[in-house]
Amino acid sequence: MPLRISVGLFVVFFSLSGCGQDYSLSPPADSEQITVTVKVPKELKTETMWVMYRSATCKSLTHGASGQRIERDGHHSVYKEFQRRGQSDLYQVKLPKDGGGACRWHLANVTFGVVYADTTEFGENVTQGGGGGVVVIFDHNNSPRGGADTEIDGDLTIKKDYYPWVSEAFLGGYRKHISLVSSGGLYLKYQALQARHVYFEPALHSDYTIYSKEPKEKKEGNHTAFTYPDRTVVADGKWHPNFLKLQTIRTGRDRDCFDVWRYANCPGRRPQLLPDWLPEPDQPGFGRYLIVDEWGNKLPSYFYRLVGENGEVFQGLTELNGRTNPLPESARALRKAEFPERVW
Q: What whole-number distance in Å separates Cα of residue 224 and Cα of residue 215?
């Protein structure tokens, strides 16, 4: 489901005690701020953030199945748009932790996420699916999306791999969606009681799109067929792509390497210097090398130390495309290539 909030879906009929009271937010000027930052890949965009405040002072009243009165903390929703920081790919929202007002509101949870900025690249009439959502809970209550899957101490940093998923459905009318596949389902859900900074960095692997087609006829044995980036087709009765299969196709690593309990026993990424000398167009007499791991993936921010034939040392960090800094022609004849440490 898209992150857009369907108001009708979440309407709860309740009355707040004390009808003459002012239930609006009024954050004090010195309220502590919580900052949420998203690093947005160029193909994606942020969705409107749904912010929920709660109050133990202004209760909400509901009735159970047998008519009994049930009092709960009141809640108040606001919606915020992310603001771009300069010309960067960082988008940010700042929220007062203390909502103030007569109800003494406090920040309870936020729901936000990313979706494709332009769905037309996947064809006409393609609509947004789901999968890029995040829920962060700042108190001891559940969010509208349920409870947290992960509890975090201190600030929260989320870095996850995502894959495009183009799905087609036929029963009940033709539909085509573009969704995002990750390790956490439609929403990643965290409880971060002490967080003052939340950072979300989705890594989108656009070259590894997965396609699925639901059956056109409802019949025993008919299942949704998933076509993976390596062209294998799987129809095993599952409704969702296999994230670990996507990870192994992209990296070449064993599936166990993506299990947090087994990762420690997996071999590290082994850096290697490709032999090709890449001339630098804007600097005559200079060129670069490319550093990759054993599967050919470019290694950004990787420390290298190269020793030339005459003993001259060239060292630094690779750029985002895995290339070294511009090197003089004297670096073309190397005696040694070392990778002393990985910088995270």
A: 6
Q: What are phi and psi of 59, to 5 degrees?
A: -80, 155
Distance CA 237, CA 234 (A): 9
- Alpha-helical regions (H) of the chain: 7-10, 243-251
Domain count, the chain: 3
Residue type, 41: P
* One domain for residues 222 and 303: no
Residue in the structure block whose two tokens are 């239930």: 23
Residue 138 zone, left/alpha/beta (φ > 0; ψ -120 to 50; rest): alpha
Give per-residue pLDDT as tens, 250-304. 887 777 777 767 766 776 667 889 988 999 999 999 999 999 876 677 888 889 9
For 14-70, write each residue's pLDDT tens digit: 344 444 467 788 899 999 999 999 999 999 999 999 999 999 999 887 777 777 777
Q: How far apart are CA 147 and CA 12, in angstroms?
A: 18
User: Do 235 and 150 belong together in one domain?
Assistant: no
Is the domain of 286 the same as that of 316? yes
Nearest alpha-carbon partner for 324 in 337, 309, 341:
337
